[in-house]
Amino acid sequence: MKSESASLFNAIVEAPFGAVGIRTADDAVRELVYLPPGYDEQAATDPLADQAAQQVARYLREPDFRFSLPLAAAGTAFQRRVWQVISEIPPGSVLTYGQVAKLIRSAPRAVGQACGANWFPLIIPCHRVTASGGLGGFSNHDEETGFHLGVKRWLLAHEGVKAW
């Protein structure tokens, strides 16, 4: 549907919650974007986008799949520390913002902000970080019935997390 997506993304992969847009440049994945329903699948425009699209599709079929893609340098030193901890959370498991904060000697709110700044969702699985008393936010969104929290719920259920 959305014709402007062809110029925005190097590939779009359909997903149960909508789609995942993939941007590549300079032999690295630059960004993954959760897209709401209405975006048509788009064939890859380059070999790396094709590889990324195949890996996203495989994760959507197999929740234990581990990504292996070159990622562009992104984020502050603090954000990269948070993302490193998050990258080590196995599928089907969650940590709270507070638990991640304790591991890096920081504050839960700062961890949440770093999660929201993640350029590589799915690859750096911020959906595996929750609030101590509930789901928490996702991708800098916290509306209870909104698209992004719906994506987070789907991803956690896909990985076998039963709480949400």
Question: Could you explain how this protein is built, in words?
Answer:
This protein is an alpha+beta fold and 164 residues long. The chain is 36% helix and 15% strand. The strands form 2 sheets. It has a 3-stranded antiparallel β-sheet. Strands 4-5 form a two-stranded parallel ribbon. The N and C termini lie far apart (31 Å). The relative contact order is 0.14.
The portion of residues forming beta strands comes to 15-25%
Order of H and E elements: HEEEHHEHHEH
Tally of helical runs? 6
Biggest sheet: strand arrangement: 1-2-3
Number of domains: 2
The helix content is 25-40%
Radius of gyration: 15 Å
The CATH level-2 architecture of the largest domain is identified as Orthogonal Bundle
Mean pLDDT: 92
| Shape verdict | globular
Largest sheet: 3 strands, antiparallel
Write the layout of secondary structure elements.
Blueprint: H1 5-8, E1 11-15, E2 18-25, E3 28-35, H2 47-61, H3 77-87, E4 95-96, H4 97-104, H5 108-116, E5 129-130, H6 147-158
Parallel strand pairs: 4-5
Antiparallel strand pairs: 1-2, 2-3
Helix pairs in contact: 3-4, 4-5
Keywords for this structure?
three-stranded antiparallel β-sheet; Arc Repressor Mutant, subunit A; methyltransferase activity; 164 residues; DNA damage; MethylDNA_cys_MeTrfase_DNAb; MethylDNA_cys_MeTrfase_DNA-bd; alpha+beta; methyltransferase
Summarize the structure.
By secondary structure, the chain is α+β, with helices and mostly antiparallel strands.
